[in-house]
Specification:
The chain has about 1200 residues and is mostly helical. A hairpin with a 6-residue loop joins strand 1 and strand 2. It has 52 helices and 9 strands. It holds the Pfam family NPHP3_N.
Length: about 1200
């Protein structure tokens, strides 16, 4: 009878094989040990960058049957009985054309109720039911039926401004075919996004409104957004919350789910995937509808941050999540723009000539032509020909003809328009049209200068203002403002409130093509009417500076009551307007040039009393704490006060606060260009902004500002903290790693290291500064190690941190931070070297750092986790129950410091789950294992699809499920384990630094399943995965031997199914290569010796070889491995086991009685050293002892018989 050695139960998903007793070698060799060792290198707890995404899949729609008729665009008829409202010229105000007999939901009057925020005055709208974009469509009874607290929560979300004042209405049946296509796509396509694109002026917004109405009537609308309104500083987080609010108002049954999200995930700076899951996906799923809901978004490319949001769509499965998106814009996205987002592109075609003719007929019917005849059919046809499908051109033509402001008859204006020989194919046509409208409304040059001034102001206006307030702000008579507003009415496509009482930003009233015309530098001079944004900021900023003393001095309280809206506007926007009047700071650092700009003098003359009054007003308006006491601020000069306040604001937890802080700091720099501290803090503010926006431009601005501060300002400022500024330059340089591939090291990171090395060398006699630089340099080295895995980088990082610690004696405030950093570096090195000395040192340093960070310190939870993780790793290495118990206790304490809603809670859950699984290895308690699985599942819920850390939860849960499978034999656990690892591998595509670990993890899960199924298909896939992993560790890679070993195990596993000698022969070849990579002195040499010995002995048996060369070499290798595992080495009993087994084989082949005697001796020693935690191994060793003894008896009897016969 032959010998086997099943492996002990392990908490890691290493395979277990059901091998018959007649097998000739120990079953798993060192498979389990190798797999467990590999899992110990998973780096759980580190934070990977977002994975790259996969290619866009754009399957075509099923064949679409258009609307009845030969031409879906042309077969629409004029309804002569349709009611229209006549516009009477010479009236003070014009009524809005109504082209549809359906409810006119778009022109409902609304009132703006201003809500003060930090950087932009956001308009909180009191909406009217049955308006489309940004309106409350929900059943009011259902909304009122929800709890009061849930309604309050819903009302706390950002509000969509009412955009019902769009002046052009949908022309019945003008886009029937296009709407049918969209509805067809919704019902049949599996894609997530329908992107409808067309040039400006094609009627996209009007089409979007009609489509939204259709979707609403079918109960398929989740939300409808018109993003032309979106403030510049609205980020994706705000937009997600905005969508949630619209969902709740349209579908009141979703309000409780939305309220739960607000309660649990209402904090700042949450990952976008978490916000999307909690605020959109779950509320929609809570409705339990049988069909997906549509989020319709118009004017997508008028919101600058839309790419960041759309890239999150890779997390969405439309069939599962019951949500789809229809997006309208001018841009045509490519596969590179949004990889991994399934998308269908639909070019919205131009309206036909017949449709545009009908459009003109319908609108011209509303004009009082006086005694003149109505336009001839020939003239209408000419206009339609010129429009060439552009609805915006047709609207502006009609609006100009109908405008009672122009001193010309409708007939005259019509004829002038027809005189142009241009067609829409000429890019100058719209410019000519817009220029002509201005010239007709304002024929005098002096008037046009006032118009330009007016336009410059509304182009930078951040929120609506009453006409009187706007006039006061820009120094213009209210009647002049009113006159210009009416004169430009012909160019408006939107009338937001319908009352004419408020002045709106240009983007809220003009079509995009109009705003582009005013801001274009390429329009021919004959038709140009350019508007300068910087001059607009100078105009509005100048008004702010002029009004600041009147409004914010202590004696201004009485005036405040009548100007509250203007007061709030100036309080929140004046720094941004004044800063915007200067050229880009990075483009021109010359302070002498700044003096020549319009607002520089008024800014310098701003008294500290005025700024102090404004500061107090700002504190009460936005509830920002002032960094210093009031008495100190009263003595501060204006520049210093702006620096102090800007620094405080830039430390805020939202982009609005940071944007205002950046503006204040920029003004401080303009006032104090030779003060290094202002430049320093401005650079920091831009870096903080980059953390929120992930904007490379913000990082590059921070680098440029810090570089200028180091190279220029610090040289002339005698009080400059030059080394501190240089360190911040290094930090800004390091921050570029956010924007590079995981496998690449940026030039900026190398420069940060170079700066650190130079500083350390130059500051030998300044211990405090040198210590700061050493810590900074150590961080840079570890950052580079995380990218390159270079042991040299890590070694230097440790050395630099140790030097810094020597300069931070007991009692120093920074000692704990340095110790914590150094502890982490030692833990990283243990992952490479498996040196217990590194682990002991990591634990010691963490314990000391923890003493210095008692309860209440922000970093205490981080230190608790890292100490606990190191204890957990030591408990595995030394089989220490005490370490394992302490690890669990510390992780529980850290979890208490991160309650529900905390951004780091998922990591705390995962870390505790791993600690419980580790304790299970020491004391097999099913309760620990069950809790571990539950905690991993909870962490995974906090990391929905698309979350940058989801992959860590997937693989950790997979490990725990595979471990539970070994205990409960539940097939469902091992199947889910494989599924989770497959998903994790998708999140680490080709080129990802950690892809190799995901390949390995999936192979291990498949091996676990193979232990049950003996499936050749699983075995083949395991080998394929390990071959791919080996290519990622080419010759020269320090871990190539590990990958060779994993592939050997897979090949030997397949041999067990196929009995193919080719697998064993390749195993021997790979084992020899691995052994050559682990020369004498290598910590893993014993593993390679043992593996090669096993492959040789298996080949000897399978090939039925007569030569004993392989067997002799196998025994020699086992003896060498045994020497490398002396005394109390935890694997010594395995080497003795292997040696005994191979000696048994040779004894049977040669009938050598000495070999079987030695085999029995080795087996007995293995039995003595077998740990209590491996009861199965002990049983097999005992069985082997019996087998060996019987063979010895048989061999001895045969020997005696032969002797007697002789």
């Amino acid at each position: 009878m032959d010998v086997v050695r099943p492996e002990a139960v392990s908490p890691f998903p290493s395979p277990v094989f059901n091998v018959p007793v007649c097998a000739l070698s120990r079953t798993m060799d060192d498979e389990i040990d190798g797999l467990v060792a590999s899992f110990s290198r998973l780096h759980i707890g580190s934070v990977p960058l977002l994975p790259a995404a996969v290619a866009v899949d754009r399957p075509s729609l099923p064949p679409h049957q258009p609307h009845r008729g030969t031409d879906q665009h042309n077969q629409v008829l004029v309804d002569p009985g349709r009611p229209y409202t006549t516009i009477h010229r010479r009236q003070e105000e014009k009524e809005v054309v109504q082209l549809s007999s359906e409810r006119n939901a778009w022109n409902s009057t609304t009132h703006y109720q201003q809500t003060v925020t930090v950087s932009t005055v956001v308009n909180n709208i009191q909406r009217v039911e049955n308006s489309t974009f940004g309106a409350n469509y929900g059943n009011q009874a259902l909304i009122q039926a929800t709890s009061r607290s849930d309604r309050r929560a819903l009302d706390s979300l950002p509000a969509h401004p009412d955009v019902s004042g769009l002046l052009s209405s949908y022309l019945e049946d003008s886009r029937t075919g296009d709407i049918e296509y969209a509805l067809h796509w919704i019902s049949l396509s599996q894609e997530l996004v329908l992107w409808i694109h067309a040039p400006a002026g094609m009627g996209k917004s009007t089409f979007a409104r009609e489509l939204a109405e259709k979707l609403r009537s079918k109960g398929q609308l989740a939300a409808a957004l018109f993003l032309s309104f979106a403030p510049a500083d609205w980020g994706p987080e705000t937009m997600i919350r905005l969508i949630a609010g619209e969902i709740g108002r349209i579908h009141p049954r979703a309000i409780p789910s939305i309220a739960d999200a607000i309660e649990s995930y209402g904090g700042p700076s949450l990952p976008l995937d978490v916000l999307f899951d909690q605020y959109i996906r779950r509320p929609i799923q809570s409705l339990q509808l049988p069909h997906p809901l549509i989020i319709l978004t118009d004017a997508i490319d008028e919101w600058k941050m839309y790419p960041t949001l759309i890239k999150q769509f890779t997390t969405i499965d439309s069939s599962r999540d019951l949500v789809k998106f229809i997006i309208l814009g001018r841009a045509v996205p490519s596969e590179r723009d949004f990889p991994g987002v399934s998308m269908s592109l639909y070019p919205l075609p131009p309206a036909s000539k017949e449709v545009i003719s009908r459009y003109f007929h319908a609108h011209f019917a509303t004009i009082d032509w006086g005694k003149a005849e109505k336009p001839e059919e020939r003239q209408v046809s000419q206009l339609a020909e010129k429009a060439n499908g552009l609805f915006v051109w047709a609207w502006i033509v009609f609006s100009t003809i109908a405008d009672d402001f122009i001193d010309a008859s409708p007939k005259e204006i019509l004829e002038q328009t027809l005189e142009s020989r241009r067609t829409t194919g000429d890019s100058e046509l719209l410019a000519e049209l817009y220029h002509g409208a201005i010239m007709r409304s304002f024929p005098r040059a002096r008037e046009r200068e006032q118009v330009r001034k007016y336009l410059q102001a509304i182009f930078v206006l951040e929120s609506p203002l009453p006409i009187a307030d706007f006039a006061k702000l820009i120094g213009m008579e209210p009647r002049t403002v009113e006159h210009i507003r009416k004169g430009l009415y012909a160019l408006q496509t939107r009338n937001p409130d319908g009352t004419g009482e408020l002045m709106y930003p240009a983007t809220a009233i003009f079509h995009l093509s109009v705003t582009e015309y005013f801001q274009s530098d390429s329009t021919p001079e004959d038709y140009a009417f350019s508007v300068s944004v910087s001059e607009g900021h100078a105009l509005v900023g100048g008004g702010c500076l002029r009004l600041l003393p009147k409004m914010f001095l202590a004696s201004s309280e009485d005036a405040l009551q009548s100007d509250r809206r203007l007061y709030d506007y100036i309080a929140l926007t004046w720094p941004g307007h004044v800063a915007g009047s200067y050229p880009s700071l990075v483009a021109n650092f010359n302070a002498e040039i700044w003096k020549h700009f319009q607002l520089h003098g008024p800014l310098q003359r701003l008294t500290r009393e005025t700024v102090h009054g404004w500061t107090k007003a700002l504190r009460s308006t936005i509830n920002v704490d002032c960094p210093l006491n009031v008495a100190h601020l009263e003595q501060a000069e204006t520049g210093v006060l702006l620096r102090l306040l800007g620094t405080k604001l830039s430390e805020g937890d939202n982009t609005k606060s940071i944007h205002l802080g950046v503006a204040c700091l920029e003004l401080a720099v303009r006032l104090l260009p030779q003060a290094a501290s202002s430049w320093h803090n401005l650079g920091r503010a831009h870096r903080e902004l980059a953390k929120f926006t992930r904007s490379r431009q913000s990082v590059e601005t921070a680098i440029a500002i810090h570089r200028h501060a180091v190279e220029v300002v610090c040289v002339i400022d005698p009080g400059a903290a030059r080394e501190e500024v240089k360190r911040d330059l290094a930090r800004s340089l390091r921050s570029t790693i956010w924007y590079h591939q995981l496998t690449a090291v940026s030039e900026e990171l190398d420069e940060a290291i170079s700066l650190g090395r130079d500083a350390v060398q130059q500051l030998e006699h300044d211990e405090d500064e040198r210590a700061r630089w050493l810590h900074n340099l150590a961080s840079s080295m570890v950052n580079r190690f995380d990218i390159t895995s270079s042991i040299e980088d890590l070694e230097e990082g440790i050395t630099r941190a140790q030097e810094a610690l020597e300069l931070r004696p007991e009692g120093h405030r920074d000692r704990a931070d340095v110790m914590h950093h150094l502890a982490g570096s030692f833990a990283k090195r243990f992952g490479l070297t498996s040196s217990l000395a590194d682990l002991h040192e990591s634990i010691r340093l963490c314990r000391e750092a923890l003493k210095l960070r008692p309860k209440g310190y922000r970093t205490r939870a981080d230190i608790l986790h890292n100490l606990a993780k190191s204890l957990g790793r030591r408990s595995i290495a030394m089989s220490s129950l005490e370490d394992s118990e302490e690890s669990v206790r510390l992780h529980r304490e850290a979890l208490e410091l991160r309650p529900k809603g905390h951004q780091g809670r998922a990591w705390s859950l995962q870390n505790l789950a791993v600690a419980l699984a580790t304790r299970f290895r020491v004391t097999p308690s099913l309760e620990d294992l069950e809790e571990s699985v539950r905690l991993h599942q909870e962490a995974l819920e906090l990391r929905p699809e698309g979350h940058e850390d989801r992959v860590w939860s997937l693989q950790s849960l997979s490990v725990s499920l595979a471990t539970r499978f070994r205990v409960t034999a539940s097939r469902g656990d091992v199947e889910e384990s494989v599924q989770l690892d497959r998903e994790a591998l998708k999140l680490r595509p080709e080129g990802h630094r950690d892809r190799i670990w995901s390949l390995h993890n999936l192979a291990v899960s498949l091996a676990t399943r193979f232990s049950v199924t003996r499936s050749l298909e699983d075995s083949e896939e395991i080998i394929r995965l390990y071959r791919v992993a080996l290519t990622l560790r080419p010759e020269g890679h320090r871990d190539r031997a590990r990958s060779l070993y994993n592939l050997v195990l897979a090949l030997r596993r397949r041999f067990g199914v196929t009995s193919s000698l080719a697998d064993l022969e390749e195993s021997i070849e790979l084992d020899r290569e691995a052994l050559n990579l682990r020369p004498e002195g290598h910590q893993d040499r014993a593993q390679s010796l043992s593996s090669l010995a096993i492959s040789l002995s298996k080949h000897f048996v399978a090939a039925k070889m007569k030569s004993l060369n392989n067997l002799d070499e196998s025994i020699r290798l086992h003896r060498e491995a045994l020497i490398l595992r002396p005394g109390s080495h935890p694997d010594r009993y395995k080497s003795l086991w292997d040696l005994g087994h191979t000696l048994n084989l040779r004894s049977r082949a040669t009938s050598n009685i000495e070999d079987i005697h030695e085999a029995i001796s080795a087996n007995n020693q293995a039995l003595e050293l077998c740990p209590p935690s491996a009861p199965t191994d002990r049983q097999v060793l005992q069985k082997n002892g019996s087998i060996f003894a019987k063979f010895l008896t048989s061999l001895s009897s045969t020997s005696r018989l032969e002797t007697e016969t002789a």
